[in-house]
Amino acid sequence: MKAKEQLSRCKPLQEDTSKIDSPTSSPGVLSAGNYPVNKRQIFFVVIVCFSSILCGSMNGWTTVLPRLQNDTSRFTVSDEEVSWLVSMTPLIMMVVSMAAGVLMEGMGPTHLMQLSIALSFGSWLIMAFTPYKWLLYFGRAIGAVAFSFLNTLLQPLVAEMSSTSIRGLACTGPEVLGAFGVLLGSTLAAFFEWNVATALLAIPPLSLLIPSLFVPEFVELKKGRNFRPLLLLLAIFVFRDLGGRAPIFQYAVYIFLRAGVNLDPFTCTVILGVVRLFCVCVSAAVLDRVGRRPLLLGAALLGGLALCLVGLFLYLELTAASWLLLVCLMVYVGCYGLGLGPIPWVYVGELLPSPIRSLGSAILIFTGTLTIFGINFAFLWMIRSVGLGVTLLSFSMCNLFLFLIVLRWVPETKGASLQELEQAFSSRTKNSGKLTQVVICEGKTSVNKKSGAKEENGGTKENDSKRLVTKSFPKSDCD
Asked: Which of 319, 359, 361, 396 is placed for a possible disulfide with 307 were both Cys, Cβ 3.0 to 4.6 Å?
């Protein structure tokens, strides 16, 4: 009897046919649920996703730093100060991201998003027109605060605003537009002086200020608590960041200069931005058909192998290393756009249970930015001490570790509702403290313990073969 009660709680939830605004919700408040797709929902999701351009442009702005060093009309900037300008964003995010979780609960994620857009606009103006070096740092710090707020709230907000049928595409939206923001910053740096490029980056937040006022506030409705997916996501984010994605994007010009690539280093950086944007768009197009797990596995493996190859060539000082660096970095950046970049953020919206989604997102941002700060700050020292080849080899090992983590523990979430995913991670049998595997299939729900399996069928075995959720724990009965 107890087993049947446990099984009944694991059955797939039916699609909610209610409107976006729940009848019990206050006006102007968006409620969670598997509601049908409509124009209002799409409009809200698009506005939220477009704010990710502001995050990408913060990363892409670092491409102007060589030009800033060459311009001594206002002040001079040393290599050490360049390291601080690159690394201060994750340093500030370590502190602000934890506060962002509290602010999301207090003032609401939509209001926090509006505040972040205003802060971002002000930060670009301060940095572009400052006559003093300390104001440059101050503007960068204000931008880092806005970056921290947006990074913490975007994925939880997009995931809860989106119905199951478009959630995969919607959750890759911030990564697509973030990649566009990086490309925008790199392109402006390639064609304009650093102060002009910085001033032009104030246009995106200015254009989002008024549309963001129309996005309603959001309220979480679901109950339950489970920290196991948080621990899994922490491992994914840490090893992804140790895999070198931040130094490769933010020190790209210095990497190409160090390796002696014959092409203009600014042109190479723009090429990387184009590759990343293209691959993120491909990921958004195929994610709901291919699934999250296969893309992440392939990206981690291929990206790690690309960095390993170029690291060996640079370490052995072979003649092909100069052009091979550009090719292998293009492969790595493509893998990042296909899987390493968007899919961990999709998992933030899908795997974190609603009651801890704000706090969990803040913890992930804090841990990730701590890792990024350390690796960004140490990167120039690493390539001076052990060489660029050994540094890239160490990055490749971290990507291969990430591949093993995903292969062993990360589930496929394609086609599953948020309620089903919470149930799958939180289910425990009453007779045992061991974690059970919940497999949700069409017409069948089974609860598998490591010692055996119990299942309840609603149809024939042949009709139960289609999988909605595939766990990468023991082999499921849906096979």
From this structure: 396
